[in-house]
Specification:
single chain; mainly alpha; MetI-like fold; 11 helices
Length: about 280
């Protein structure tokens, strides 16, 4: 009897895994390489916070593949270490949004009634504001901080998962396998975890990848305007902002490489989401 919860958890993970099998595209490869490079950054790059006043604004070279910034810090090292922060914050925010939004949307669709309608009105109210503008307002009110940024980015994305899950669950609510589960004595929570989430896992995975891309853009934008991560902490948006003033003087590399990191990561995450969609549409 003690092994029953473990067995149920294993079956749940297997069911989700079967729904998420997808052909690896370039998006997954690029993200995998980026994660690997950020993981081994201490072995292949310099200290991202080391200041060398004798090597300020040095163009790309063998010693400094991406050049140095106005403080003499190695941009290659800072881009790699910034990947840890940006990807980590994005994954944390998107995961928190999934853990809250998916169960709320599924339970609301199953229960129906006034609770479902109230939840729907709340999500509509939040989504009526532009995502970045809403995040800017909240961060300006509560102040910056990595933990606060994760909570804010997650909060503005929770309504997306609520509405996505609700729209996917509603057509399944009266299907035979759900009715059979109810006849077997399963409650709403058990039906959600055992039957509904495995069947909509592909939709959640695609949206999760997109939300990671959104989170990186929001974090970079907040840092760019001074409401996110502050220098000298390596962060792509803050690095772009610091290098923007030097572009007009010919020091293009200061802002270019962190900007390219944002573009490549966001495009790769979007391609990964498209891979899930193409797989499930066949």
């Amino acid at each position: 009897m003690a092994t029953a919860p473990a067995t149920n958890s294993l079956r749940f993970l297997v069911a989700v895994g079967n729904r998420l099998r997808v052909r690896v595209g370039y998006g997954a490869i690029v993200i995998g390489i980026l994660i690997l490079l950020s993981a081994v950054a201490p072995l292949i790059s310099k200290d991202p916070l080391h200041i060398d006043s004798t090597a300020t604004l040095v163009p790309p070279s063998w010693a400094h593949p991406f050049g140095t910034d106005q403080n003499g810090m190695d941009i290659f090292a800072r881009v790699l270490y910034a990947a840890r922060l940006d990807l980590g914050e994005a994954l944390a925010a998107a995961t928190l949004a999934v853990l809250i939004g998916v169960p709320l949307g599924a339970l609301g669709a199953l229960a129906a009634g006034w609770g479902d309608q109230a939840l729907l009105r709340i999500t509509e109210s939040v989504q009526s504001f532009p995502t970045l503008l809403l995040a800017m307002g909240v961060v300006a009110a509560i102040g910056p901080g990595l933990g606060k940024l994760v909570l804010v980015i997650a909060a503005v994305n929770i309504p997306v998962y609520v509405r996505l899950t609700r729209s996917a669950v509603l057509p399944m609510r009266d299907m035979e396998f759900i009715q059979a589960a109810r006849c077997a004595g399963l409650g709403n929570i058990a039906i959600v975890t055992r039957h509904l989430i495995p069947n909509i896992a592909h939709l959640i995975a695609a949206q999760f990848s997109i939300n990671c891309a959104w989170a990186i853009q929001i974090l970079a934008a907040l840092s760019f305007i001074g409401l996110g991560v502050a220098l000298p902490t390596p962060e792509w948006g803050a690095m772009v902002r610091a290098g923007a003033d030097y572009t007009v003087y010919g020091q293009w590399w200061v802002a270019l490489f962190p900007g390219l990191a944002i573009v490549i990561t966001v495009l790769s995450l979007n391609e990964l989401a498209d891979s899930f969609r193409r797989h499930t549409s066949r």
